[in-house]
């Protein structure tokens, strides 16, 4: 049973994040140290250097040979349900569109497994809870963030292709650069695929987790340890991951006219996706594969963890609803503790 000491440990882990947030906010709003160009540069540093090393560092520490295959199957089913629901909404409703589909997927799929998840699940369910939430983070890094990156790159690549002001000369140049001949407008799917593929190949986030998993497979198979010089080189940047992400969020908030540049309706919408749709879909996936007992409880609760900090970094980098993602991270983290404890109590009573 979780106690006050356990809640304090979680709060103690979360409090430094808000120190970084306040420092980022104050550096722009109060001390006028950075302008918008500086903020963009800091966010790119986080997106392309710190986050990939953070992902690689964390992935190398797991043992892929001891993962819970039923939980993995449940998680895949859960996210498949979310993707299907978003696809139906985007294609068969008047308000559905591709850009909001990306944001909805991020809100309902990417959670804070490390900063909040590990200490909270360990407090609730001991080593079992910690182990399951770490497995969830690996799936998130390897699969779901990759899908999000693919969607974001497609969105970015589609913008100029959908612009009616693009001249025929520019279109022809793009066709030539992509080694595509005789492609009409903008049957442009082939060009789009080439552009997206090239962008993903250049993005270190797209293969950081794969490299980390390969090392984890090799090191656990033959009991190898990463050389100290290599581990130190990775960790010196990766340890700044969560802090720099929150600092960037503070910068972003300070650059807006209002500290929270998001309507109450959108904020509620984000909280519903994060704390209701995500655990509901995980419950369906868990029941479908036969998860029971504490593993079932952990699977559902970890799906209701607050929004992943990295999702804001990507939203800011790709210019897609960063205001909503910042709100989801900040308020989601604030209200997550009582909500997660409520889930814990209810699940222990009902299941």
Structural commentary:
With about 350 residues, the chain is an all-alpha fold. Helix content is about 80%, strand content about 0%. It has a single domain, classed as Na+/H+ antiporter like fold (Up-down Bundle). Helix 5 runs antiparallel to helix 13, helix 11 packs across helix 14 and helix 12 runs antiparallel to helix 13.
Please describe the topology of this protein.
Blueprint: H1 4-29, H2 36-59, H3 69-92, H4 98-109, H5 113-125, H6 127-161, H7 168-177, H8 189-202, H9 205-222, H10 228-238, H11 241-255, H12 264-289, H13 293-303, H14 309-318, H15 322-350
Keywords:
about 350 residues, mainly alpha, Na+/H+ antiporter like fold, about 0% strand, globular
Helices, by number, come to 15
Strand content: under 5%
Envelope shape: globular
Q: What is the CA-CA span between the terminal residues? A: 15 Å
Oligomer: single chain
Mean pLDDT: 85
Indicate how many domains the architecture comprises.
Answer: 1
